[in-house]
Amino acid sequence: MNSLFTALIAKRIVATVSALLVVAIGCSAGIWQLSRAETKIALAANLLARQKMPILSANAGPLTLEEASERRMIARGQYIPESAIWLDNRPRPIPPGGSTTAQSGFYLMMPLRLEGKDGILWVNRGWAPRNNENRETLPPVQTPNKVVNIEGIVFAHPGRVFELGSKKIAEAVSGPRIEQNFDLTAEGKLHSWNQAPFILREVEVGTEDGLLRDWAPLTSGVDRHYAYAFQWFALAFAGFLFWLVTGLRQFKRRGFVNGDQG
To answer: Is the pTM of this model over 0.90?
Structure first.
């Protein structure tokens, strides 16, 4: 009489190893997705804590990236629109209500000449949609021709997208440029500016300048990670269940055959 162990494992080595691989891969991927979700939650909590610290002033004095990173900051100065950089292939931070399709557009990076000091602060002013008929046509945006006060959150960079090769910035700059990524160091060398070692992502909403600043929270995507984790764990369970059911069927079938021969 065949034992259950023999029917499930000893006579099904290949099936058992395959099932173990499916279970191991599914569980590992599920745990990794849960880890990604927890990391995003922790980053969001850290960002919120830093934003509750006293608001910094870009005009008060030089600050390092470590001192200012992820903190709220105010700045007073005048924009230099002719040196603006439009970062291409940037999805709308928060899609319109009910929409599941990401709308492509630009982030507008513009230097702000700080009032009362010889310094430049690069500002991510917001997002604007791309012209689908002519991708070289820049969105209409209003830029005040006067000293302005802005408020935002400090980041090391505005985010990066995949780019083939390394593109060198031309020496002669005649106006706004469309780029894939923003290199703060390279821009400082190009213009010979005394720049802050960070960028400021503007947070003011309601300003009618043609830009959107409804920035997605850092926890965006957490639900997706949980959904992916559930799918991976479900795959692991399905693999184990398939192995168990097929093994039990074979065990019963062999027991029936042995009973007939007896």
So the answer is: no
